[in-house]
Write a structure and sequence with these properties.
The complex is a heterodimer of chains A (259) and B (312). By secondary structure, chain A is α/β, with parallel strands linked by helices. Chain A has helices at residues 11-21, 35-45, 74-77, 86-95, 136-142, 173-178, 216-221, 241-251, and strands at residues 28-30, 52-55, 59-60, 82-83, 101-104, 108-109, 115-116, 119-121, 126-129, 146-149, 188-190, 194-198, 205-210, 228-235. In chain A, β1, α2 and β2 (52-55) form a beta-alpha-beta unit. Chain A is globular and about 45 Å long. The two termini of chain A are 14 Å apart. In chain B, strands 1, 2, 3, 4, 5, 9, 10, 11, 12 and 13 form a ten-stranded mixed sheet that branches. With 312 residues, chain B is of the alpha/beta class. Chain B has one domain (7-110, 164-295): Glutaconate Coenzyme A-transferase (3-Layer(aba) Sandwich). Classes of the chains: A alpha/beta (259), B alpha/beta (312).
Chain lengths: 259, 312
């Protein structure tokens, strides 16, 4: 992990703030645990007050009163809009196209936003056995937008995945448009170093902004391919005082995910 | 289905239910998505040293880490293998990564694929079609996930998964009658589908209640007694998982399990202390201590009442 000068906020805090701003105007949001959970709760209190938090455990419209450790925490149930069976959640909400945006991450991502959450090494004799798909494969295919939050490193931003759990862009946008899926590859990636979009012509991950104090060389040192860089490369806006206050005082006072 | 006993014979102990209904070589599903995971049944299966089971569960969770590390299973069918919010499941990983102490056969799906396997099993269908797995490597390592075309005009490509029909499904619930009519609120997971799909069903409840309690609120009945073979009243059966309204998820336990399971010696010592050296879940509850259970008890948050109406 790269060295960061003391800028008054942590790497996780700028990842959370940058991701939350991308949820402006979104409605039904499939939330993961950890950073995405804080991102979505921050967005609900700032740029996206109408955001509905949806959890694969079967909860629509959650209003968690504490930071949930798992996506099945009882605090997600109490006070929610609806609790459904998992079949209903995956079939009627996700597969039918009601989910506007979802968060995914993984042990490995490639330049087209394909994700590996299954194994490091060979499938039959893995070096590290990872959790597997969970809902990720169908989320990647059926959510209308997918956003990725991941820390950047050579071992996680790789030229070739060891296993493709969840499909991203194919590298051929004409093919992607003909897939007929609700979603078709991630729309953004936020890391501890910068933010990325995906090029419309090639479907390739493209660096859009660097976080304050981060250099292009640092980005290159922490990924397994030479990244495409936007012509108008900008700087990520640092978290505002209000965003930091919400994160530190309301959303993660113990600093479980944000230190 | 069909061989279910008369109601008065269904209420039994965990020891007897597991001894009679879980057999070596069976496919066993202990379902419950984060919520209502019946650890008490898993511990009893370990204690009775059942062998060569095929264990099915969407999220194997700490209970299957304990059972698989405890040597009861030869195969695992799953869709997400981890300790939620914490990390990996070390006993299972040792068997998959290093065949330590012996190999573990695996068959993996996505969540939606697993849910729909139970739906097909419960519905007596030969397969269930879903829009998932496109351009994923998962079907390449699992021949039970197959692409097919819609027989109708648009010819849409979908993936089919086969029915899953466990020999035994064990589900927990808040309350049940002596006939096995089970009521659940909070996260529903795929308990209903897994129960209807199974050949034999054990219902475990926090409280046995009178039939009139269920009949006053029939919408909350997830599993009717007609598909249930045994009913076990077992308070705190789901710890360190939780029962909505009864006790909280013991997150500290899940965090600590990571350290316990990392080392086979501390893993074995835990199983000895908390499973083999105890005779039943009642001992476990007592050993954990009253203060522990007090800490996990939530403040009440009652639902409003609804008017079903009386139509005499």
């Amino acid at each position: 992990m790269s060295e960061t000068p003391d800028v008054g906020y942590s790497q996780n805090e700028i990842m959370i703030a940058a991701s939350a701003r991308q949820l402006a105007g979104e409605k039904n949001c499939f939330v993961g645990i950890g950073l995405p959970n804080i991102v979505c709760n921050l967005a609900q209190r700032t740029v996206s007050p109408d955001l509905q938090l949806v959890y694969e455990s079967g909860v629509f419209g959650a209003r968690p009163e504490r930071l949930p450790l798992s996506i099945g925490d009882p605090t997600l149930v109490s006070g929610s809009t609806a609790v459904t069976s998992m079949f209903e959640l995956f079939a009627y909400y996700l597969q039918a196209g009601l989910i506007d945006v979802a968060f995914l991450g993984g042990a490995q991502i490639d330049r087209y936003g394909n994700l590996n959450t299954t194994v490091i090494g060979d499938y039959a004799k893995p070096k590290v056995r990872l959790p597997g798909s969970g809902g990720a494969c169908e989320i990647a295919i059926n959510a209308r937008k997918v956003m990725v939050i991941m820390r950047q490193a050579q071992r996680s931003f790789v030229d070739t995945l060891h296993f493709r759990t969840s499909p991203g862009h194919s590298g051929d946008p004409a093919h992607d448009r003909a897939r007929g899926w609700w979603g078709s590859g991630p729309t953004s990636v936020v890391t501890d170093l910068g933010t990325y979009g995906f090029d419309e012509e090639t479907g390739e991950m493209t660096l859009r902004t660097l976080h304050p104090g981060v250099t292009l060389d640092q980005v290159r040192e922490n990924m397994g391919w030479d990244p495409r860089v936007a012509g108008d490369l900008g700087e990520t806006s640092p978290p505002s005082e209000e965003e930091l206050r919400l994160i530190r005082e309301e959303l993660d006072p113990a600093g479980v995910y944000t230190k | 289905m069909g061989g279910h006993p008369m109601s008065s014979e269904k209420v039994t102990t965990m020891e007897e239910a597991v001894a009679e209904l879980v057999r070596d070589g069976d496919t066993v599903a202990i379902e419950g998505f984060t919520h209502l995971i019946c650890f008490a049944a898993g511990h009893e299966i370990i204690r009775q040293r059942k062998r060569d089971l095929t264990l099915a569960r969407m999220t194997p969770d700490v209970i299957y880490d304990q059972m698989i590390g405890g040597g009861v299973a030869k195969k695992l069918i799953f869709s997400w293998l981890g300790n939620p919010g914490v990390g990996g499941l070390h006993a299972i990983r040792r068997r998959i990564e290093d065949a330590d102490p012996e190999p573990l056969e695996i068959e993996e799906y996505s969540h939606f694929g697993m849910v729909c396997r139970y739906v097909a099993g419960a519905s007596n269908l030969p397969f269930f079609p879903i829009r998932s797995y496109y351009e994923s490597d998962i079907p390449s390592v699992n021949p039970n996930i197959k692409p097919m075309r819609s027989p109708f005009e648009d010819g849409t490509e979908v993936y089919a998964v086969p029915p899953l029909r466990p020999d035994v499904t064990i589900v927990s619930c808040q309350r049940a009658t002596k006939d096995g009519d089970a009521q659940i609120w909070g996260l529903l997971g795929c308990q209903k589908e897994a129960a209807f799909a199974a050949r034999r069903v054990i219902v475990v409840c926090e409280e046995l209640v009178e039939e009139s309690v269920v009949r006053r609120d029939p919408n909350r009945t997830i599993i009717p007694g007609v598909v249930v073979d045994a009913v076990v009243e077992e308070p705190f059966a789901n710890h360190p998982s939780f029962t909505q309204g009864y006790y909280d998820r013991d997150n500290d336990f899940y965090v600590k399990w990571d350290g316990v399971a990392k080392d086979p010696e501390t893993f074995d010592a835990w199983l000895k202390e908390w499973v083999y050296d105890l005779s039943s879940h009642r001992d476990y509850v007592e050993k954990m201590g009253a203060a522990h259970w007090d800490r996990l008890r939530p403040e009440p948050a009652m639902s409003g009442e609804v008017n079903y109406g009386r139509y005499a």
